[in-house]
Amino acid sequence: MDQLRIVGGTPLSGTIRISGAKNAALPLMVASLLTDSPLVLENIPDLADIRTLSKLLASLGATISPEDMGEGAGRALSFHVPTITSTLAHYDLVRTMRASVLVLGPLLARCGTATVSLPGGCAIGTRPVDMHLKALEDMGATITIKDGYIKAEAPSGLSGARIIFPKVSVGATQNILMAATLAHGETLMENAAREPEIEDLASCLVSMGADISGIGTDTLRIQGKTALSGARHRVMPDRIEAGTYAMAAMATGGRITLEGARADHLQCALGKLVEAGADIEITADSITVGRTSGPLLGVDIMTEPYPGFPTDLQAQFMALMTLAEGASMITETIFENRFMHVPELMRMGADITIHQSSVLVRGVPKLSGAPVMATDLRASFSLVLAALAAEGETTIRRIYHLDRGYENVVEKLRGCGANIHRESDNQDTPDL
Ligand code: UD1
């Protein structure tokens, strides 16, 4: 197992090229199951989650091949599934990454049958898939759960339906959107998630020949087609990665240009950073974030579905707030157990009190380095952020979480002057 060793206290300054978005790339890769022609995806980040999903898609019949894009243009991969060779998504491939459950809708729509392992819980909460299943049942599927697997059948294909989601779910919206493109008739989805990653998926599906209206709104209307074609699509920039590095600039009192980042995807988070004392410059293709000459101020946030403050930036924002003047109330409304970074931040000197789904962060003048442990993907980066701002040395163990979602993190941070090293740590055991 690797660990990170960080000596904090250097203001980070420079330019970071933002990678393709993991959370957009994963559903886009799954969309390749909907067609027998190649789907070429540009700007795919090189991450553990991408490799895990590639393995799963290969086990279902996908041939995955790289395409040369030239220096600095990001990676392109071609996904080609001429025939589905298996409709079984095995537990071993689903358990490490919940997004694997997205293969359910497309497999069912293309083959009339799918057996997908239930993903189970994860560190940040129970994360059920009941809304995915209920919506597929509304579209005519018969679903049974046996031996930890979801067995879904629709021998005559799925039929369009009116689906009103009781709660906003990114994954359920993506699963049903993909299934509906090959269903008989019209599907109407209400209270659909509006995250930019869904817009990215919908626009790729349209390039593949799907008929979707309402893209970017919470009501999506899809007219099913008998087949979709291949396409070429560029994965959107990772707004969570961009927001994370923006907070790293703020926490260390430096200034970072986030190349390729889109400010329109980050309006809520950037607004909160401005309230906290950020000086932000926006161009068509970059965001530059630094601090004004004033102090870093405590600001309250509440996580919400897009366009609200993203839950995937909550842990990083909390790390930033540990050093603010005054207090900050942080309320998590999406996941029930997403404060596991709190005890680790407190080991570094943060003053944080948890009360149910909120935490009160009272800013302290400085954090100090300590050995800490990463618990989930975004929580890992909150520790990196705290370590970059802290006095002294921090070691962060279990960084395989970080590898799931941040591309070239050590290189990107070093490029901005961070004192950060990756080294092997033989004392830890994997608990994936
Ligand atoms: C996606 C993102 C994740 C992000 C989350 C919320 C990917 C690969 N992952 O996860 O990074 O944190 O959106 O923005 O894109 N729920 C149910 N029943 C369901 C489905 C969801 O109760 O059938 C609940 C979940 O437990 C959670 C909430 O709905 O409390 C939102 O979850 P959802 O939007 O589905 O998250 P994911 O798609 O899993």
Can you characterise this structure?
The protein is globular. Helix 1 (22-30) runs parallel beside helix 2 (48-60), helix 4 (104-111) runs parallel beside helix 6 (170-181) and helix 10 runs parallel beside helix 12 (377-389). The longest helix has 14 residues, at 239-252. With 432 residues, the protein is an alpha/beta fold. It contains 14 helices and 24 strands. Mean pLDDT is 94; it is low at 428-432. It has helices spanning 22-30, 48-60, 91-94, 104-111, 130-138, 170-181, 196-207, 239-252, 267-276, 314-321, 342-347, 377-389, 400-405, 409-414; strands spanning 2-7, 13-17, 39-42, 63-67, 76-80, 88-89, 113-117, 142-146, 149-153, 162-164, 186-190, 211-213, 219-223, 231-234, 255-259, 278-283, 286-291, 301-302, 327-331, 351-355, 358-362, 371-373, 393-397, 419-424. The strands form 6 sheets. The protein has a 4-stranded mixed β-sheet with strand order 22-23-1-24. Strands 2-15-17-16 form a 4-stranded mixed β-sheet. Bound molecules: uridine-diphosphate-N-acetylglucosamine (UD1). Residues 23, 26, 98-99, 125, 127-132, 167, 169-172, 193, 197, 311-312, 334-335 line the site of uridine-diphosphate-N-acetylglucosamine.
